[in-house]
Structures are given as structure tokens and as C-alpha cells.
């Protein structure tokens, strides 16, 4: 029985917007992830199309993220650039380009939310091969949480941030990044007394189904 059939999910929203789901074998997926060659799955009748891999891990992403970095630079001037920027990471694309374009005095930290720290560094290295290096720092979570799995402290962080700030963060990326950030602040690690800025990178449309999963597991 599909417990989320009546709940709005990322998948249902994408289908409503016209997304066509293409099923791939494990081997096909691995090849696509490695080569970024979308021609085997491109619409056969399309005259023009653009293949965008997971995490928008393409050089074209740099243009928009550079603008974000400039906005962070403007904000950081208020604190004489004594700022630490924290971002949740999948492929690390946003964090990499932010780190590349912010003022050199600003420290940028990426929190691995999909794989471990080694996976994040590997993904960033691929970007660096085409776009040049960035001084991105990796802030490791206190617990390895497999992508999309449930961990009660993430639910607690979601509730705490919402209650204290009125801002909702997503349960997959944002809550793990916040738990990591708050833990580092509590231990007085990493940020060296800097003003900490968190950059929200994910949407909230997946929260409804995640919250339902938490309620079912923890009988909330």
C-alpha cells in the first residue's frame, strides 16, 4: 500500500509539470552518471534539448551561482568579510562555485548530504577539472545518514528551526546541514568566531512525504 499516494511529493509535482519518467537499468544509470551523455534518453522528436545531470553539475551553473556569490560578498562587507558560509551539498556544485567567487577572506563550508566527505571531494574535483580550483572546506556531519533515510535528530532540528525562526528547512538536505552546523558551533569548531550564513539550496516540496514517514516510524 502506498502510504503517500494522497500526499504531494516531488515526483507527483514533476509529473504534473509534464515530466516523463524514463526507467533505466543500473548499468544505464551508471553510464549516464559517469558520461553525462543524455542522447540515449533524449526525446526522439526534439529538435533542441539540454541534458542536465544530477545536482546541475555542469559549467553552465557557474553563471547564476556567481551572482549568488556576489550577493554574499555584499552582505559580508557588513562584517568586514569575517563570515563563514555553510551550504548543504549533493554534488557540491553550488558550494564549489560560491567558494570560487566569494571574497578570499570568506570561508565556505560544504556539508555532504548524499555521500560521505570523500564522495563530496570527488564530485568537486570533477568540477575543478573544468572550472578551476575553489577553496571549499568540507564540514562532516556527526553521523553518516544515508540519503533520504530517517534519523530522529533531523526531525527535531526541523521543528526547532521552524519554532525559533519561522523558517522551514527541508528534511533531507537542510536539516542535516543545520544539525552539522549547530554541532560545530556548540563545540566551538570550524567557524573561528565568524558570522555564520546558511544558504538554503533545496525546495520544500518533499517535506510532506518525509514528515509522513517520520510520523509512521516514530508514532508521532
From TrEMBL:
It comes from the Eukaryota. Its cofactor is pyridoxal 5'-phosphate. Transmembrane segments: none annotated. Keywords: Pyridoxal phosphate. The keyword Electron transport does not apply. Gene3D superfamilies: 3.40.50.1100. Belongs to the ACC deaminase/D-cysteine desulfhydrase family. This is Tryptophan synthase beta chain-like PALP domain-containing protein. The lineage of its organism: Eukaryota, Sar, Stramenopiles, Oomycota, Saprolegniomycetes.
